[in-house]
Amino acid sequence: MPQLSTRITTLNEGGSDGWEVFYRARKMAAAGQPVTELTIGEHDIGTDASILQAIHASASGGHTGYAMVPGVAELRQAVADRITARTGVPTGPENVLITPGGQAALFAAHVAVLSPGDAALYIDPYYATYPGTIRAASGRAVPVPTEADRAFLPQGAAIRAAAAESGAKSLLVNTPNNPTGMVYPIETLEEIATATIDHDLWLISDEVYDTQVWQGEHISPRTLPGMAERTLVVGSMSKSHAMTGSRAGWLVGPTDAIDRLIDLATSTTYGVPGYIQDGALFALNQGPDLEDKISTPFRRRRDLALKVIAEQNTVTAIPAQGAMYLMLDIRATGLSGRDFAEALLDEHLIAVMPGESFGKSAAGHVRVALTVADDRLVEALKTLCAFADNKARADA
């Protein structure tokens, strides 16, 4: 058969996509084993019934044909109003492209700013799709390492070094952060902004967890001086409104960039179904009360989880300031994150994500998703900590 393109065959550089433990846990669960899944950021509640009713009413009412490719006017305006209210940066519908979820927005953003072969920076640890997304856009994925002892916060010097060495055209950041749970403070964002301006980079800011902040304050880097004209912001209904399967997201940026991105959408996705957009519009119009209802369980579970971690000395937690995850340091066991996760699944039917799935900087860590009921989460974490303690004693 004819050969496939190098673009598609090198998305994972011929190696792992990072999801092996998750896939194995799902197969075990499908076979009837009582696996406690703490792997992916999937809400344990469904999409709110009122949103589903709005989607049903829209579809039943006939909004099932082609929708406007940039997004229906009312939704673009609602997203623009939301961004303006939350950040203070004047934003109009002309700055908004509605996309099939945040992942499509990430891809579109990199297509917009990279020519074939251009280097694109991203912070390590990273969400598992980041390097593949960059390669899919014909870019060279260049990680910027961070340190666990600095809570995985990016350092300006490391960004500058990577930009200078690679000749990068863009930098991808994510705050609140998946997988680390960190919320970038203003000092970190100012270092990021200075580096991007000095090296003339586009900044792609993934802000899909902006409603899940437990400590500190979410600040969009687009708000900093000189950044609005060089920043593309990725947003989504998935995390804020538990609409993961609806695939409703957006990209916010300068008008000329959005105009070009509309051309890209016309040639690729051809927009988002109208009834899904109507459901997203209804959800946004419910205001912060609905967002708080969806985020509150994760704040509560974060507190419960940190209490469990504080009661032992083998496992330590990276400060969990936002998002629906905990990053746990298990280096005292002498195991890699991958080996720890595989053994924990085999011996206790608890599935967590290896830190190595998110990059070299997270080696010796595991990520725990706070996505099961409180009692199950506490029980699983106590088992995880006891398991780690046993491994550490055996390694001593």
From TrEMBL:
GO biological process: amino acid metabolic process
A Gene Ontology molecular function term of the record: L-aspartate:2-oxoglutarate aminotransferase activity
Keyword Transferase among record annotations: yes
Reactions catalysed according to its record: L-aspartate + 2-oxoglutarate = oxaloacetate + L-glutamate
Reported cofactor(s): pyridoxal 5'-phosphate
EC number, as in UniProt: 2.6.1.-
Keywords: Aminotransferase, Pyridoxal phosphate, Pyruvate, Transferase
This protein's record includes keyword Metal-binding: no
Class of this enzyme: transferase
Annotated ranges, domain Aminotransferase class I/classII large: 35-382
PANTHER family per record: ASPARTATE AMINOTRANSFERASE
Family: Belongs to the class-I pyridoxal-phosphate-dependent aminotransferase family.
Protein name: Aminotransferase
Gene: aruH
